[in-house]
Amino acid sequence: MDGGGGRHQVPVDIGGVRIAPGDIVLGDANGVIALPPAALAAAVHEAELSDAAEPELLRRIRAGEDLRTLLHLG
Fold this sequence. Notes:
It contains 2 helices and 4 strands.
C-alpha cells in the first residue's frame, strides 16, 4: 500500500461519534469524550463552579436537608 488516498483535517465517525478537526479528546477508565474547545471550556467552568459549591452542599446534607431537594431531583 502506498499510503495514498488518506486525508487529514476532516471529520471522522468512530463508534457512532463524530470527531471534528480541532476537537479535544479525553479518556479514562470510565470512557472517552470528544468536545470542541469552546464546549470543553464551558464544561471546565461548570466543574469549577460545582467544586466551589461542594462544601456548602456537604454542610447542608450533614444538617439533614434532603439530597433530592438539594439536587433538584424531586
